[in-house]
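Hey, I'm writing a tutorial for new members on how sequence and structure tokens pair up, and I'd like a real worked example in the thread rather than a made-up one. If someone can provide the structure for the chain below, I'll link this post from the tutorial.
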Amino acid sequence: MKLDKYEADLIEAIDKAEQFETVTDYELELQEAKLAAKHFLNKTRNINIRIPEFDMLLLKRKSAELNIPYQTLLSSLIHQYVTGKLKPGL
């Protein structure tokens, strides 16, 4: 996986660190870190994509069969592909 500059700098700083600060309230810090991660992972981004009309018709038909919005279905398919759960049928 390719890291951006910020991520690479962060890993380098961690590797070079001789010691870490002790946290006084570990549970509170852990809870705040989990909350920050949750907010980061729940962020979404709008995209524009051109899809052939026929494919869009079929996508909407499939989403109606599954009783979920077509945007949710499309987002789910993209997520499954990028996480390796769905392989392209080449």
